[in-house]
Amino acid sequence: MVGTMAPLPPFIRPGRTHRTPRPAAALPADDEVLLDVPDDRLAPALVAAARGEHGPASALLAATRANAEWESRDRYTRRLAGFARSRGEWLAAWRAAAPRDPDALLVEAQLAVDRAWDSPARAELLREVSPLITAAARGDDRDPVPWRIALDHARGARAGHKYFEELWEAAIRRAPLHYGCHVAALCYLADSWRGSHRECFDFADLAAQDAPADSLVQALPARAALSYLADAAGAGVARERLDAAADRAIALSARFPAADPWPAEVRNKLMYVLLRLERREDARAQLALIGPYATSYPWDRVSDDPLAAFLRARDEIHSAGPAQPSGHPLGGRAGRACPRGH
Fold first, then answer.
1. What contacts 24+ positions apart, CB below 8 Å, involve 71-75?
2. What pTM value is reported for the model?
3. In this predicted model, which residue has the larger pLDDT, 236 or 41?
């Protein structure tokens, strides 16, 4: 069933907190910039996985589930699944030792979706993954992350609108402000066979308006702007709306510490958007907050070498020449703005 996505259900407004940003550090040298650096909790789990040990990964994900740290759980699941694509012995051993472990099932489900996504037979392969996602969702009924995976799975399988909306409602019932689920829904709308850029902005703006000031959902309109700017054939969106989306994300970025890996991807995407909008001074401010923490996305959509693309963008920000015109000022290739679940 093809249709446009219904308006978001009402969001729950939890108590708001405030973060005081620390001053940004001096701009690091090119050889000090790192790509996709894991935080202090994930790094030991990845080191252990490289040795074939699953214990630290198991303990990490179990802690995120026990403490309802859903954003961290989502990020760690993605990174662990990404590592298992090339070195999966530790995950196989984990699954063999604890076949019903909800954390192992979650990583396995993410890995299966990732592998199917890059295949020409994606839709067919994704249908075979459904039982894994269902098993992961049964592990802990509070957990929204299996539902985020289910949303990505449905988008890749070109599921109908009614089915997707049922998944969406189940996801936000568990975590009304979960950023990963919102990005999955935004990407569904952005795909050419489903929605329009205006729908994406309507969705993102409504979500951000009802989210607390320090929620990652505040970055959703900027994510919609990135999708629009990456699609040269898309229907027009007013410049004022693009600037407002960027301004909202700038306010969110200011609430996090400088040179911190946690908000690094939000800041990298924001810097990309600001460059495309030719707001060089604002891009320079984000670059200072990013510090040494480059992230693959969005730079991997313009180059096979995302670190080099980030460094080129950094050079552009600090160049003395005029800002480049609209289009693809960062160079490289045009690509779909929502690969997998970014």
1. 71/178, 71/179, 71/180, 71/216, 72/41, 73/106, 73/143, 73/145, 74/144, 74/145, 74/148, 74/178, 74/179, 74/180, 75/42
2. 0.87
3. 41
